[in-house]
Structure formats: structure tokens, C-alpha cells
Amino acid sequence: xxxxxxxxxxxxxxxxxxxxxxxxxxxxxxxxxxxxxxxxxxxxxxxxxxxxxxxxxxxxxxxxxxxxxxxxxxxxxxxxxxxxxxxxxxxxxxxxxxxxxxxxxxxxxxxxxxxxxxxxxxxxxxxxxxxxxxxxxxxxxxxxxxxxxxxxxxxxxxxxxxxxxxxxxxxxxxxxxxxxxxxxxxxxxxxxxxxxxxxxxxxxxxxxxxxxxxxxxxxxxxxxxxx
Length: 227
Description:
The protein is built from ten helices and three strands. It has helices at residues 2-25, 36-43, 47-59, 78-98, 105-124, 127-142, 148-160, 162-170, 175-189, 193-219; strands spanning 33-34, 63-66, 70-73. The protein is mostly helical. The protein folds into two domains: 2-73, Winged helix-like DNA-binding domain superfamily/Winged helix DNA-binding domain (Arc Repressor Mutant, subunit A), CATH 1.10.10; 78-219, Four Helix Bundle (Hemerythrin (Met), subunit A).
């Protein structure tokens, strides 16, 4: 029984990774329907792990499951991106600033190590590990929060919009994010709440601008503000 569970988990993760990459690369387009039957046949498995994979992808914002219609690739609008980064910036900045005195030397070492890993993975174009290190970095920023409701809200925001983070990673638009992470670390070292909040805001603004440009470029509606 345990073996079957591990086997299904492996299949589920393989399906999730495959569909994620196809969505990000554009092989699967927004609004396109996803067939459980087709995926089951492609991977030669039952529909149970397929359904579990689709539920996971829905929780991350990649697909939308519509009752009696099935799963479709979620669309991304400019407002979706703005709403996510504004919410993330406000919550993450507040949580990190309120718990700034609780960051230990070990926490700072972990943040340093993760950002160095991100630099290394970036040079190697190892986006899967870059993405994991990026997520782990931001989890440390909120780990000392004593307000469990607020912490759970932020973790839910992270989970719901994994698509945006992964898109930035695969677009290779991460140099600015890495630099901003160093500023976040310095702010924590210096116990500078105001600078920490500002650095987190700058980090969010960076991601938002790039994604908005990318999304609108696909429709031909993007205009450079400098023009």
C-alpha cells in the first residue's frame, strides 16, 4: 500500500511539472481545456493521480476547474498581477518588519546561502532549483511571524500565485530580484525596519513590472512608459 502511494505521488508530480512547463512556455494557452482522459492516456495511468495534479495546479493559479466543464488554463490579466504583488508586498513587508528582531544569525546565514545558490543556479540556467531556492528565501522572511492567521494568509497568497514566480524564473528575468534580496538581507542585519519594507516593496514592484510587460506584449497592448 505504501509503495502504491509513493508511486502515485511520483506520477502526480511528473504530471504537475509537465503541465506547468507547457503552460509557462505557451504550449498550453489560456482558456484551453485540459482533458483528464487525454492526460491519463498520455501517462498510462488512472485518472486519480491526474485529478490530484489538477487540484494542485489550481491551487497554484495555473488552471481553473469549472464544475461540469473540467479544467482550463487560467488567464492572466494586468489586474491579477498588480493585485498579487501589491498584496504580497504589503503582507510580507509587514510580517518581516514586525519580526525583524527575531531573525537569528542562522536565519541570516540561510538567506545568504540561498541567494548565493540562486546566483549559481541562474548562471547554470538551472531554473527548477533556482525556483525552489527563491521560494525558500521568502519562506524564511515570514517564518518568525507569531500571527498564525496572517502567516497562513501570506502562505496562501504564495501558493495561489506560484505561476507568477515560475514565469519570472523561466523568462530569465531574475538579476534584479537577486540584487534586491541582498538589500533585504542587509536590512535584516541592520535591524532597519523601514529599509526592509522598502526593499520588499521594490522586489515586488520589479516582478510586477516585468510580468505586466510580458502579458501585455502577448496581446500587443504594451506601451513603454518611457515613450
